[in-house]
Amino acid sequence: MLSPDSHWLAKIDGEPVGYFFTHPWAGNTPPELDQEIAALPPKPDCHFLHDLSLIPSARGRGVAQALIQTALSWGEIQGYGRTLLVAVQGSVPFWQRWGFVSLSAAPAYGPDAALMQRV
Asked: How many Cα atoms sit within 13 Å of 12 on the Cβ side?
């Protein structure tokens, strides 16, 4: 695991209900889709939010908010001045509520995907 301190597993009553994988990154180009990340950049300049997932029964229970806040806090503690992600499947409005703004389209990730940044 490339960045074990920046991955979180959410549980309710001891059962896994979601996860959030994030990692240090560099530049404004997201990781290539469907490609293993063999190594982290030698000089990361941002925190990349890679994959957030919840089981349906966990939605609306504050799990996503807790995972996101934990990840954003981790990035701040590490000293990253910005956070990047690729919003997919119509999630741009969700991420805008967290202070992310669109930088560009990310068509490799889907027709409505957008590279987003939070500073």
From this structure: 15
Contact 87, 116 (CB under 8 A): yes
**Nearest C-alpha neighbor of 117 from the set 33, 4, 27, 6:** 27
> Cα angle vertex 87, ends 65, 32, to 5°?
120
At 43-75, the pLDDT tens digits run 999 999 999 999 999 999 999 999 999 999 999
Altogether, the residues listed in the chain come to a count of: 119
d(CA 105, CA 20) in angstroms, rounded, equals 23
Task: Please give the Cα distance from 101 to 112 (Å, whole number).
Answer: 14
Whether domain 4-118 has CATH 3.40.630.30: yes
pLDDT band, residue 1 (cuts 50/70/90): confident
Q: Please, are residues 118 and 98 in contact by the beta-carbon 8 Å criterion? A: yes
Rounded to 5 degrees, φ, ψ at 106 are: -135, 70
Handedness of CA 5, 3, 30, 87 (dihedral sign): negative
